[in-house]
Amino acid sequence: MSWLPLSFGAPMVLLGLLALPAIWWLLRLTPPRPRTEPFPPLKILARVLKREETPQQSPWWLTLLRLLIAALVIMALADPVWNPREKTPVSGTGLVLVIDNGWASAPDWDKRMATARLLIADSTDLPVVIAFTAEKPDADMGPFDASTALDRLRAATPRPVPTDRPAIYARVSETLALMPDASLAILSDGLAAAGDDEAFEELLKNGAANLVWAAPERMTPIALTASENRIDGFLLTAIRASSNMAPARLSAGAFDDKGRRIADATLNFDAGETQTDATMAVPFELRNDFAFLALDGEHHAGAVRVLDESAKRRRIGLISQAEADQAQPLLSPLYYIHRALSPFADLIEPSNPDLAQAIPQILDQKPAMLIMSDVAAIPEQARQKLAEWVEGGGTLVRFAGPRLASANASTETGSGTEDDLLPVRLRSGERSFGGALSWTTPQPVAEFPASGPFAGLDTPRDITVTRQVLAEPSPDIMERSWASLADGTPLVTGKKRGKGTIALFHIAPTATWSNLPISGSFVEMLQRIVLLSRNQGTVDMADETTLAALAPYRMIAADGSLAPPSPEARPLEPGADNVVTLENPPGLYGSQAGVLAHNLLSPASTLAPLQRPQAQIPMSDIAYDFDPSSLLKGPFLTIALILIALDTLIMFAMNSVLSRRMRAMRYGATTATLLALFILPVLLGSTAFADDRKPDDAMSIDAVSTTRIAYVITGISSLDAVSHAGLQGLNRFLLDKTALEPGEPAGIDIATDELAFYPLIYWPIDPASPVPGNEAIARIDAYMRQGGTVLFDTRDQYSSGFGQGAASPATQRLRDILDNLNIPPLEPVPADHVLTKSFYMLPEFPGRFNGSPLWVEASLDASNADDRPVRTGDGVSPILITANDLAGAWAIDANGAPLLPTVPPDPMQRTYALRSGVNIMMYMLTGNYKSDQVHVPVLLERLGQ
């Protein structure tokens, strides 16, 4: 019956149904009655007793029920399957599975894995080779047995990177050469990539028994390829595959760094259209808060685009003292600056030409950068406000010109201008090349310095300079030169002032002094300075550290979410032609100080459908889908068990067993209830009189059941919050890096709380906190004498020690506390101390600051042999003292991000601070086991003898 979607895995078992008539006969058969021999003395009793009669045959309906039970059991043993599927043609000496797990496979990954499991199930006992095209080429591919292959599939995940078919197919081809006549199954993501044709030829050159090809029915993913912050809004560009030509409409969202949706746009694909644009028309202040863009309903890495500071538009003020000639706009001092900056910045100009009013008017609009063209004298009332703006983080860019040159020449000293709003001191007058009365020729631009903001830009070979304003020679002139001419004279100089930057182009912004303003290099140089002008959350491009590799910060996961970096992610080299790989997955690279966006797709990317390969071997196509069949063995056995239980109840009812047992149960329940009513009050009453528990017992049991670090509650809410957050950050690091599973940090009052539960107490010292009383000091002294350790942290990076010289208020408060304690002699942690190697190898113990030593109990009787790793006599010091603010470096917020910056802002300093905390905890919990390890070789030698 082909119309019935039911099949059996073991159809021969159904022959057991032929035994149902025999079972019917056995169920109805009744053995012959035994012969009765009456015993005369019992005749009277036989007449008195009630005779129970048993029917000779069971009722027909009960027999039918038992036959149904037998039939269900037989059908269950035959492995019934509802809606059975056709098995895939897997044969030969093995099965070779090649699975695309790149970013395009994420939307249908579950179906892809279900299809792979069916292929493995159909291969019975054949060895299985599994290769993923988005993994490293040296990954283990097998062959595996079926069970191990299924475990491998369960552990596999899609990757947010493109596939690497050429490398993987080459390895699979080598495997096929060792497994002749194996079945080859390719589970593709349907997305074409460069080199696919050559990769398929390499894969199939060693032959296979047959080829099973699986691909999505239609390429549905839509991806973001570009975004641009324009004047009128934020432009998005999305693409789709050419095989998906139906009209489509979807929405996109812009999110801030906390994941809040702050803007929307609608993308419309017309029929036959593979690329479309949409604009988020929102104010640029709101656009500057965009952290990433995402397409709604698209759960893959291509649907998310992260943004860095280069995507943020900046408000730039323009000031010039020269009046623009409307008839000759090319001679305007701001014309080329307008043309260079308007595509990626919002330009503002004052309405009043008077500098005394124009500069404050521009600064009131909070620009990121201010460009002044040929402005010589700045009014004093505006100069102070301009200087404060630069100190606060603004970027001032000035251009030379006739006015600035004449101002130098008119100085009384004749030695040039001394202006604190210029990066260098200028010489009087100007320098001219290539004139009729000059023997010099126009000077070209030299290669940009590697430590300046223009590092990495191509040297403009066709740019020459005919006039310039010269800088006075100084020892730091080379450090302040961002660009120079071939003769070594500065073209662009700059310096830091406070949090801001001052830069000077030693030429005019028109084409009269140089052809630089009419070149593409001028646009690139201004763009670099705009990047430098970011006041918050940016990497200082003038800092030579930006040339170092950027650490992974937040990565785009395969499902399109933002996640912490995986262990295999590696730092990204800035400025290089970076591609998305497993070592450099898409996401943000850098730190809280600044990030660089590394996105999956470029503006030139396309989504082309993958063509089915042509082969000379038998081929079959399958579709991605879950197993449509349902096993009925379990339901059949369940129904049979229910019917067996029903048969048992019927038998109890027919034999009156059930009624008798119910009466007995009711009698037993009544008796138990009466006993409980009489006995329980007595038991409860006696227990109440014997209960000697105390209110703090539960807290004590909880405290000793897990290792917890305590901190002293100072009464200063902000300080206590940092202490709690710091110990939470240390706990998380301990969980990640060690086998220790600490409990929640405990805030304690040293005057009242029990201290013996905690191996380490962190005590931040603040001058505003009161000095503990004598009773509290006595409890701390007893705690330290009984094996506990107190970590005092003055958080002021002192270096004067504990003498009677000048000290900070926090250090003086610490001295007041220690005067009442029995403190052993102290010393900075020696290089061979257990603390330097209890878990990590550490030469120092930094916190938020890195300058104070960590003080411990001095090992006065230490005498080291040359072959000993640590000094002898090391016990657990009852006191540790630092000024590096360890808790401030450990502190994290609710999202696990660092709460306070390190000084200086160095991510590795925070890592070393956390490692210091791990070493301290290992030292507290294990004591001097490192010192004891020196005896291990001697003991082993003796055991060998």
UniProtKB/TrEMBL annotation:
Span of domain DUF4159: 708-925
Residue ranges of every copy of the Aerotolerance regulator N-terminal domain listed in the record: 6-80
Pfam families reported in the protein's UniProt record: BatA, DUF4159
Sequence intervals crossing the membrane: 6-27, 60-78, 636-655, 667-689
InterPro entries cross-referenced by the UniProt entry: Aerotolerance_reg_N (IPR024163), Class_I_gatase-like (IPR029062), Double_TM_dom (IPR011933), DUF4159 (IPR025297)
Key words of the record: Membrane, Transmembrane, Transmembrane helix
Name this polypeptide is given: DUF4159 domain-containing protein
Species per Swiss-Prot/TrEMBL record: Aquamicrobium segne
